[in-house]
Amino acid sequence: MNRVQNPGTLETSRHKNMASESVKDGDVWYAADAFFKKFGQVHHQKESFNSFLLRSVPDIIHDNMPITFGKGRYAIEMQNPLFHAPCIEGEGTIVYPMQCIEANRTYRSELSVDLVVRDLAEGLEKSHRAVSLGLFPVMVGSVFCNLVQRNTTEKQKFALRECPYDEGGYFIVKGTCKILVCQDRPMSCYNRVYVFASRKAPNYTYFAEVRSIAPGRAGRSTTVVVGVTHKKSSVRRLLISAVIPYMSDKTPIPLGVLFKALGTKDEHEMVRLIFLNEGPSPAALAF
């Protein structure tokens, strides 16, 4: 009678065999070659720009609505942001990258929104459709590029004097090609405390840094630094100070002053907020 082997045992044996096999240099280059053949050399540039226009710009507009003025009587709300295809201003004719280079034009797109204006005191409302909000440079090869939107073939690119091997990833400003050097920063570095040794401005021996950003929202991060400085005196003392946004790093704020500004009553409350329930007892503190 033939013995049937447990499928789980087969799976475990297969993983052990894979783990015992060493990855050779040729395997690494094969994977890298396959990646670039599928995505190209500037995929990261174009994807970052696409994410900025498709997600970040609408999120920024949504997060800052409504805009009030007139001592809170009037409110403006922007809705339905729309990027139009790059065209010649005043004519509405579709334009392509090489045409912008030859005519010293900027390859850009118009952003329009629907405006809703409200008179909160009178309860009145008026809508305006497709109001121009501004112009954005368009990255060649992005989803907003006319070469991509119109699915131009290699033959059509030759007719437009476009290079079929040009992957894009750059901008055209007044006929000049310009590129932004990308910086890859993992999202895991936000909202975490990192401790480093030595900082010149301010002169910290050790300092902790945290970059804060709201999850799932677009915008700039806020950085707070708390550091320790050795004070030069007959008695060796440690001074703790902080660098907060909109304040110069040349004049760090003493930690006690910062806690007082945030509303703490005394030193015991400061210690409780720092250590929570794991700090020393108030009786052990010599304040």
Describe the protein.
Mean pLDDT is 84; it is low at 1-5. The protein has a five-stranded antiparallel β-sheet with strand order 7-8-9-10-11. Strands 1-2-3-4 form a four-stranded antiparallel β-sheet. Strands 5-6 form a two-stranded antiparallel sheet. Strand 3 (108-119) and strand 4 (124-137) form a beta hairpin. The protein contains eight helices and eleven strands. The chain has helices at residues 7-20, 25-39, 43-63, 97-102, 146-149, 154-159, 255-261, 267-275, and strands at 67-69, 74-83, 108-119, 124-137, 171-173, 176-178, 193-199, 204-212, 222-231, 237-243, 253-254. It has two domains: 43-178, no CATH class; 187-284, RNA polymerase Rpb2, domain 2 (Dna-directed Rna Polymerase Ii 140kd Polypeptide, Chain: B, domain 3, Alpha-Beta Complex), CATH 3.90.1110.10. The N and C termini lie far apart (84 Å). It is α+β, with helices and mostly antiparallel strands and 287 residues long.
